[in-house]
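INFO batch 0412 | record 1 of 1 | parsing
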Amino acid sequence: MDLSHVIANLNYWAILVAALSTFVVGSVWYSPVLFGKKWMALNGFTEEKLKQGLPMPVVFGGSFIGSLLAAFVLAMFLGSSASLELGIFSGFMIAVFWISTSRLNLVLFEQGKVGLFFIHAGYDVVTYVIMGAILGFWHG
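INFO prediction complete | emitting tokens
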């Protein structure tokens, strides 16, 4: 594999859109309409407590950098001959069998809350499937 060839053939607009899609999903997933209230309860968060944490620009900036890196590497993984189907399949497999199993190990060894595992793992599956779909469909 020629890494310079792979990097030169990436669609950086698709990578940017894929990274931004995680914010769209997250704004719905962690909203009060879906899992936001449960997520807050399981973590023992209140609105006031969340305001005392890291400043929102730091949280969202760090999250965007992480999403951008994930989308970049997923695009490299899919390659220039990706398809919509490959993107969806790869995103699903990565989220379920790499990310979620790692999260599960943390829950088991740290005696974490299983409810949080399912909320976060579900978010990972949805975001990686969508990122894979964007990158696979818009690869050229």
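INFO post-check: The chain has one domain: 3-137.
INFO record closed
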